[in-house]
From TrEMBL:
It is found in: Membrane. The chain crosses the membrane at residues 751-782. This is Sphingomyelin phosphodiesterase 4. The lineage of its organism: Eukaryota, Metazoa, Chordata, Craniata, Vertebrata. It comes from Cercocebus atys (Sooty mangabey). GO terms for biological process: ceramide biosynthetic process; glycerophospholipid catabolic process; sphingomyelin catabolic process. GO terms for molecular function: sphingomyelin phosphodiesterase D activity.
Amino acid sequence: MAFPHLQQPSFLLASLKADSINKPFAQQCQDLVKVIEDFPAKELHTIFPWLVESIFGSLDGVLIGWNLRCLQGRVNPVEYSIVMEFLDPGGPMMKLVYKLQAEDYKFDFPVSYLPGPVKASIQECILPDSPLYHNKVQFTPTGGLGLNLALNPFEYYIFFFALSLITQKPLPVSLHVRTSDCAYFILVDRYLSWFLPTEGSVPPPLSSSPGGTSPSPPPRTPAMPFASYGLHHTSLLKRHISHQTSVNADPASHEIWRSETLLQVFVEMWLHHYSLEMYQKMQSPHAKESFTPTEEHVLVVRLLLKHLHAFANSLKPEQASPSAHSHATSPLEEFKRAAVPRFVQQKLYLFLQHCFGHWPLDASFRAVLEMWLSYLQPWRYAPDKQAPGSDSQPRCVSEKWAPFVQENLLMYTKLFVGFLNRALRTDLVSPKHALMVFRVAKVFAQPNLAEMIQKGEQLFLEPELVISHRQHRLFTAPTFTGSFLSPWPPAVTDASFKVKNHVYSLEGQDCKYTPMFGPEARTLVLRLAQLITQAKHTAKSISDQCAESPAGHSFLSWLGFSSMDTNGSYPANDLDEMGQDSVRKTDEYLEKALEYLRQIFRLSEAQLRQFTLALGTTQDENGKKQLPDCIVGEDGLILTPLGRYQIINGLRRFEIEYQGDPELQPIRSYEIASLVRTLFRLSSAINRRFAGQMAALCSRDDFLGSFCRYHLTEPGLASRHLLSPVVRRQVAGHTRGPRLSLRFLGSYRTLVSLLLAFLVASLFCVGPLPCTLLLTLGYVLYASAMTLLTERGKLHQP
């Protein structure tokens, strides 16, 4: 009778695999719900790994599973509702997890798919500091290449759920998927709300038997000894359960491990991609990035930080005080108090450091910026938060947040300096970049926040006092190991020790700290203020330039009738696409950012006025930009020391013009690419075939020779701007003979002009052939007149 019993699970798995191919998605989910309800755990555990992989995709990214990152309710409402119901924290899938959890099944998870620092540590037989990996590593007889983690069903499910954000390929830009609307993002939000509750306790797991509960995972003995760094405490939960009977135990103590596991897995999979040693190596310009986060990844991490702040701030005032540590404190309250400093802070700091140093200098950095600002403002997620103040009067940061600011000092100061260095390399005329500077300045300008940061820096920079050996060891060699439910270290009342402990634990004992309110950072702020002032003037000049344009300019430019000047006064940015409204927004953002910086660093009005006056000297009476100060030498323009200063500080610049072969210019937006290439090949063939005849015609001294020279030769160097000596020699050495150019026929402007001419002619009953003859005659007359004027001008040249 045992033989059929052993065959049934494999038959069930084969049947479900066949259904996943042949049946519609809704029917598949209905069958899965029925299977989870009807079958016992010993038969369900064989389908569990396949089901998890079919939902979240394979770890190597080949299989995409249900593609939760692209599934949206407004696009696929039926599939979306089915998936959300099936994967809900109280749904059928989680019921399957708890069903297997009650039977203590284990599932192998390959170490090779873990984040880089964790994988390297385990492969070197060093136990990672996170308790998530303790008692779970299994070694194969072949050695260290086939390492696996033995995970319980809940851990296995959450591992796959978290890693699907990392292992799956980035979403194509063409999809235009809004991350906050996709099923994955909303599931993360639901799981965090369920397992990190702000009110009450974690809901008990669903159980198939009345009154049954799934026990916490028992400790396992590692199959090989580890040389572990740091101290490793047993979980307070396990200690709590092992010392209490099940009758008197707090129910939350039995279930807090699920919240613990969820948080640890999310932090490890999403943030622990950089260790302190790896971060220090990454400072080298030749270092190769081991992991590159995406914008979607950053948005999900921001959601995690918001929930963590709300979770930690849901402690009642009497519970949040350090004196509240007592035996009466529940495990959930311990968890709330310790989650952020013990798990998130170090890994988030390294993650942000990497993003600030390696993220592209484009508008996508806004996601990283908002994640950082969300972490810096826990008061926004407190239940007793004040009503938001107006823009003119932002709300004051309460003094009760001073310990958080001091214990996260580097998050405020070093990352702010890193942002200054980024901002100095961006185009602040762009409204998106101007908005980022405004957002950071607005957050740091909140009343009382700058004073708190300055007080924290003073505590760190004050000289160390003579302290006992025991205290010194406690605060200069901190450990982030063990569960947050581990025995809590004794509270230290000296705030200076806390700040020093924070800085040294994140940066090392030999770190070089740059004060946010020191002279180096103040110099960067002044440079940024100067850049903001310059960007405001540039935006105003663009606005004035747009206002001077005729009303029909935009329509004509769309047709290609705008000026063909390829050397515009200002570099391209998103102002060109967004128009006057964006110029106004840019000016508004920069104006407010400058005011906020003045408040934070107590800049005087005189200092800011100097920047405005310095920019004012770069414009002439008509408001047009002048060239840098220079003198004319034998080989061209030579910069004076004043001119070098003007260029280095961005006060003046040379107009950049194309000086190469006009036929080889890049194809413009007002040209048809394929037609331009075809005309170039045609004209090149004609020039090769008739080069001698064209040269003979252009060498004649009569009117025919002048007419040919007007059409077949380029203007001489005398009609161009002075070039640098190198370019002058290159141009002189590459003198081009007469040649025919047909490129003008590849322009939308020319083609639309001809089309309009034929349409107008048809209105007067003039056919295509007579119209063509009239156009040709008109052009011959125009070209003859221009030829005479050109020759007369040459006669009067000295």
